[in-house]
Design goal:
alpha+beta
């Protein structure tokens, strides 16, 4: 037997086999890509539905090792205390009540019409310039009613953007300083919102927003800084006491309406441009049940 011929045939066969494999691999690589790109290119991320939503959306995982590092893993009062320290010490930007007007034009801008804002209880898009005292104007709604604790509009809880939202003057009047609960009669000008003598129910699309704003306030303001200790409770008709209910309903609302891109974007704008603190329940909605 000619072993040299056999060896040569074996080498040729091996080369042909390797060439077949390489051809199959190269066929999967785009013509303009390098081999390194083909191996390490990540899966394509989905496009955001609107340019404004393409801004950082408050993904909590990007803050757990930095902003929230002292809170992660805690529950109950320990979690609440830790979050209070975080969001109060990082709130280095504080607005006057007059400055809130322009800030709301930014935080609540209509993603589809830059000259408008989205009104909280109705969902209506209104011109940024249509603010004031007229019936069809929008004004600055304190979601935690400022009479609940009598903190007014001085810089502090009365100007905290995390619970201030644009709302129609007439709808804001219908809400007044009522607590939050389910039920009541339909609110004119705010489809899906309802109210009765002692409570207000916002439309479904913002029920979770309202809950998370209230619970933010309860964590942020604990009796220090010369302001009242704000706490939710499970009743309505709280009057001027520093309480708002119903806690059980707010917890349900937070579960029913998880944070959406608008709410996450709003949280990010407040963090980046104005107060430099975050609403932890937008980033970690599961912390609602972990505390309450």
């Amino acid at each position: 037997m000619d072993t040299t011929r056999v060896t040569r045939r074996a080498r040729i066969g091996l080369a042909l086999a390797i060439g077949t494999v390489l051809t199959a691999v190269v066929a999967q690589i785009p013509a303009n890509a390098t081999a390194t790109e083909a191996v390490h290119r990540p899966a394509a991320a989905p496009f955001a539905s609107h340019p404004s939503h393409a801004l950082p959306a408050g993904d909590h995982t990007s803050y757990d090792d930095t902003y929230y590092k002292d809170a992660v893993g805690k529950t109950g009062q320990a979690l609440k205390d830790s979050l209070h320290r975080i969001i109060s010490t990082t709130q280095t930007g504080k607005l006057t009540y007059d400055e809130v007007w322009d800030a709301l034009k930014d935080t609540d801008q209509d993603p589809d019409k830059s000259g408008n804002v989205i009104l909280l209880y109705s969902g209506r898009s209104a011109s940024k310039d249509a603010h004031g005292g007229g019936t069809d104007d929008w004004n600055r709604e304190h979601v935690w009613a400022k009479s609940h604790g009598d903190f007014g509009t001085d810089t502090g809880p009365g100007t905290d953007l995390h619970h201030l939202r644009p709302a129609e003057v007439s709808v804001n009047g219908a809400r007044g300083d009522k607590d939050f609960d389910n039920g009541g009669e339909a609110v004119p000008g705010a489809p899906g919102s309802r109210t009765d003598d002692d409570s207000f129910e916002p439309r479904d699309a913002v029920k979770g927003d309202v809950a998370r704003m209230i619970l933010y306030m309860a964590v942020r303001y604990d009796g220090g800084d010369g302001f009242p200790d704000l706490e939710p409770n499970d009743k309505v008709d709280n009057g001027t006491a520093p309480h708002i209910g119903k806690l059980s309903v707010l917890k349900e609302w937070s579960k029913q309406d998880p944070p959406d891109s608008f709410e996450k974007h709003r949280n990010q704008v407040i963090f980046d441009k104005y107060q430099h603190n975050r609403n932890p329940f937008v980033d970690h909605p599961e912390w609602v049940d972990a505390i309450w």
